[in-house]
């Protein structure tokens, strides 16, 4: 029996239930697949929309030893909340002084950025702990090949001057979710060569890292010293078609706030894009595209109520949408809970919405926002 998230009997608003026990479990699953590596839990974008602080604690309970974020502000919010473990921030272009003062490690992608970090370290009066990001072919951030030698030389000089400690050499994969893709080998070799070159010049990185969730779960040759899972922690689908026993963390639910009969021929919602084909009963859900229920899903998804699925009809609006309960009303009453996606009987997964929308579960999860309440179950 899968463990189902406890949804309280009655909701008064759209709610994202976050199962922290599932976070802990999912980190353990990743750690079991990468037994020789440390686990850095990736908490960027408010932990993919799940809440960075509670997810951080649950991930650490599952065996993560480091945390990864995009911006310095995200890192400092965790520090301010009392998180003391290593945190790496890899995509900020400012805030270096505050980061260094708070012992936040910085990803560096160019000699110019390194110079700014060095200046910040001087002004704070302590060395910056740096992970140099190497562009091994994703062609996003990372030190480009033509700037590698200059960056490495500047790192050597900064270490001599005591302004930098080069702790990490890392990269990000272009085809992580395709475990057989030959480009993974190209990137592995390029990262290993950069780390070897750094060492040959006297640098002593202790953390070489490349693997996102998919590579952490499928490619031991990419584990190096540390893996950086994100979507796996949230129970998404890191590799399409593969099941690793991960548990969904977010269950997105909302109350049915109004139930009413419609006659055959009645139109529903803006533009009357749906006309009742028969006498029926409809229910109203107070969640819309401002909450992460995408308007392009209009008329294309189903919610689960008490394990039964009911189709959404008419346009999804900013604040609400309508479901067709059928001529007999499906036994649904006002106050019942409709599960939009997540870990509940009959419910879609975030990845099902992703398929309908031509996107991925990452985007579906991070879109749940604004007025949506967050409720946590499990250790906080
Ligand atoms: C987002 C991110 C990750 C996590 O990726 P998943 O596919 O969610 O596991 C790892 N590393 C970097 C640099 C990232 O930006």
TrEMBL record:
<comment type="pathway">
    <text>Amino-acid biosynthesis; D-alanine biosynthesis; D-alanine from L-alanine: step 1/1.</text>
</comment>
<dbReference type="GO" id="GO:0005829">
    <property type="term" value="C:cytosol"/>
</dbReference>
<dbReference type="InterPro" id="IPR011079">
    <property type="entry name" value="Ala_racemase_C"/>
</dbReference>
<dbReference type="GO" id="GO:0030632">
    <property type="term" value="P:D-alanine biosynthetic process"/>
</dbReference>
<dbReference type="InterPro" id="IPR029066">
    <property type="entry name" value="PLP-binding_barrel"/>
</dbReference>
<feature type="binding site">
    <location>
        <position position="318"/>
    </location>
    <ligand>
        <name>substrate</name>
    </ligand>
</feature>
<dbReference type="GO" id="GO:0009252">
    <property type="term" value="P:peptidoglycan biosynthetic process"/>
</dbReference>
<dbReference type="InterPro" id="IPR009006">
    <property type="entry name" value="Ala_racemase/Decarboxylase_C"/>
</dbReference>
<dbReference type="InterPro" id="IPR000821">
    <property type="entry name" value="Ala_racemase"/>
</dbReference>
<dbReference type="Pfam" id="PF00842">
    <property type="entry name" value="Ala_racemase_C"/>
</dbReference>
<comment type="similarity">
    <text>Belongs to the alanine racemase family.</text>
</comment>
<dbReference type="InterPro" id="IPR020622">
    <property type="entry name" value="Ala_racemase_pyridoxalP-BS"/>
</dbReference>
<dbReference type="InterPro" id="IPR001608">
    <property type="entry name" value="Ala_racemase_N"/>
</dbReference>
<feature type="active site" description="Proton acceptor; specific for D-alanine">
    <location>
        <position position="44"/>
    </location>
</feature>
<dbReference type="Pfam" id="PF01168">
    <property type="entry name" value="Ala_racemase_N"/>
</dbReference>
<dbReference type="GO" id="GO:0030170">
    <property type="term" value="F:pyridoxal phosphate binding"/>
</dbReference>
<protein>
    <recommendedName>
        <fullName>Alanine racemase</fullName>
        <ecNumber>5.1.1.1</ecNumber>
    </recommendedName>
</protein>
<feature type="binding site">
    <location>
        <position position="140"/>
    </location>
    <ligand>
        <name>substrate</name>
    </ligand>
</feature>
<keyword id="KW-0413">Isomerase</keyword>
<feature type="modified residue" description="N6-(pyridoxal phosphate)lysine">
    <location>
        <position position="44"/>
    </location>
</feature>
<keyword id="KW-0663">Pyridoxal phosphate</keyword>
<feature type="active site" description="Proton acceptor; specific for L-alanine">
    <location>
        <position position="270"/>
    </location>
</feature>
<dbReference type="GO" id="GO:0008784">
    <property type="term" value="F:alanine racemase activity"/>
</dbReference>
<feature type="domain" description="Alanine racemase C-terminal">
    <location>
        <begin position="249"/>
        <end position="377"/>
    </location>
</feature>
<comment type="function">
    <text>Catalyzes the interconversion of L-alanine and D-alanine. May also act on other amino acids.</text>
</comment>
